[in-house]
């Protein structure tokens, strides 16, 4: 039986000026994703500026030369990219082919070990069918390129919704699990953003492992992928290094689900290092919530739901008990002195 070494990954935001690849502690990770590249919305090719090209080269060279080295992938898309761009590209065999060949070329030219697609999100059943086709053809192209160049095949992964289907959306759709299981190396399930600024009426655990009141939870989402036929060794759990914030209606009613009136500090989002700073400066009360496996803090009317070392460790143990391949963080530079990233290294043990 093939062994599947554990994945301990993180996305590196390329716009982070204070956090160059040289600052990454590679003892804590196995794979680092460069976030993000976008193809042209006209040609569907990657048309890279000189500054992006040198950034890519520096990223792979630096991380491959570190001790220990880590594998590098570039991620295509991201939360702020236009889902219609991917829908158009994926809808036609010609444009899929151009996109795939250009992605492989970028990976080889700049020394990457693989590619990741972060299409957020396919909007309807047709998009999902086209995505399945894209993955299938991408895998064939990767194998063909590896054979003709006598090199190891490039990795192919995708960042996906926390659940296999969008059962809470106006348009129901489901990921092409069969194509994913056959074509990808693994999926990065984005197990966060369950609650946020789009609903300011109540606080929420935005990355709850369990939700006693709904299926919008990490345990439900990850299990749905496995039930849909994606093997456990191909599922990687996402962990947020940031919190969501609200302004409480009444400072004395301050649990998860407490009435709120607006977004809180940081316009609704604080990265983990900022959460720590806020808690310290405001003498915030910090509460670990065992029911949802999450942490929250409050000071006056400000409320923050996030994951700390304890909730992260519990989640990683859950992923391990479920037999998943590992975990990834969004995003690398949001941690505070590697506090949370270290938890994973300590608590995730690969089965022999």
TrEMBL record:
PROSITE patterns given in the database record: GH18_1, GH18_2
Residue ranges occupied by any GH18 domain in the UniProt entry: 6-351
CDD domains membership: GH18_plant_chitinase_class_V
GO biological process, one term: carbohydrate metabolic process
Domain of life according to the entry: Eukaryota
One Gene Ontology term of the molecular function aspect: chitinase activity
Keywords, in A-Z order: Glycoprotein, Glycosidase, Hydrolase, Signal
Any single Pfam family the record assigns to this protein: Glyco_hydro_18
Gene Ontology cellular component annotations, sorted alphabetically: extracellular region
Family as reported in the entry's similarity comment: Belongs to the glycosyl hydrolase 18 family. Chitinase class V subfamily.
Name used for this protein in its record: GH18 domain-containing protein
Organism: Dovyalis caffra
